[in-house]
Amino acid sequence: MNQFLYELLWFFFTYAFAGWVISTALAAVREKKFVDVGFLYGPLCPAYGLGGVVFALFLTELKDHLFFLFLGGAILSFLLTVFTGLILEGIFHRKWWDYSRKRFQFGGYVNLPYSVVWGGLAVLNICVVNPFLQKVFGLIPRAAGEIVLLVLLALTLLDLAGTLTGILKVRSHVKRQSLLYEVSENLQRTADMMGQGLTKLVLRRMERAYPALNVGELLKARKEQEQKKKAAKEETAVFAPGCSFYKLVSLFFLGAFLGDITETIFVFATAGKLMSRSSVVYGPFSIVWGLGCALLTALLYQYRNRSDSFIFVFGTVMGGAYEYICSVFTELAFGTVFWDYSKIPFNLGGRINLLYCFFWGIAAVVWMKYLYPFISSWIEKIPKKIGKRLSWILIILMVFDIGLTALALNRYTVRQTGEGIHTAADEFLDVHFPDERIEHRFQNLKLVD
Known about the structure:
The chain has 449 residues and is mostly helical. The chain folds into three domains: 3-139, no CATH class; 167-236; 245-447, no CATH class. It is built from 14 helices and six strands. A two-stranded antiparallel sheet has the order 1-2. The chain has a two-stranded antiparallel ribbon with strand order 3-6. The protein has a two-stranded antiparallel ribbon with strand order 4-5.
């Protein structure tokens, strides 16, 4: 286990446990009784552990830029909270927290004042807590530390498996309840035909058979459920309605393609040379633009009718943060950077600059106000079966393309160290993706230590 992964695992478990202790204590004070707020059975809140890891990965180099460190912490906590809330809601079909009644909230998942608090905590985390924890981790004998981490990791995975098993049991229970809905409704219809007196007898019998079942509430809920299904029937007949999964997939591929073409034209117009701007080894696709298009649409969809200035500010901040995260990720994953703005004024570590952040803001306004409504309507006209099949074909091809690109870039980085061929995969990559091809395909590519 290398030092980098060793420290990240310690950060994860330390912050996951600390988050559980603090959240449980606050809940106990508020409810005046013990309340386990954790997702898992054990004393861990994975979201806090993941937050600690994300802060360590993406914010450490901002240690000397306190304002950007604060801003980065607020933005990362915002994104992490939103996606954690969406995942939990997707699993349990309900929100675990809801800030909808707060004045400064986003989708009910984020309360913006809390994001400001997290920005301050990020400064404390990077400047004070993490350096202290690194010293503490250094006092633990390395062999013992690795054993402890492996045991904790195994226990956490078992805990996660138990939690998922519990979720499946809950879903099974929900299915049984749905069956009771059907039985209750059918009995209700039969009873209506035979008179109100028999209706009461039937319902009373149901309540005696199932003491925990409130038949009246079940029937009411069932009717509401059918009304929702009926209202959604027309919408589900359309391919990629609203801001659905297939709509975002379509926008990803469209954004990736148009982003690559736009950047190619921009570079040719400003630098006078034709340069590949693709992120993958096959096809004219810029993954940064594709993901940016899908993510910004998902975040801004509910605010698409807000003012241009609101969307511009949101796009500027989120676009800049997104580009910064992508730059750090590619450097950590592949030891390479695909763009460097060090020579442009008002840049941050060469990863982003103010001018291009404004471009993100302008692009957000143009996209949400003018292009998205038009493109969205055309996407929805695609036949449903054809659209779904085409989406999954493109997803499979893109996963293959990204995976092959990652292997090729990793092998390119290794070759620069002078390391030879060890496996058949190395030989295949050296033959089909030599240095000349990689450098021609990714002409802005730079190696970093």
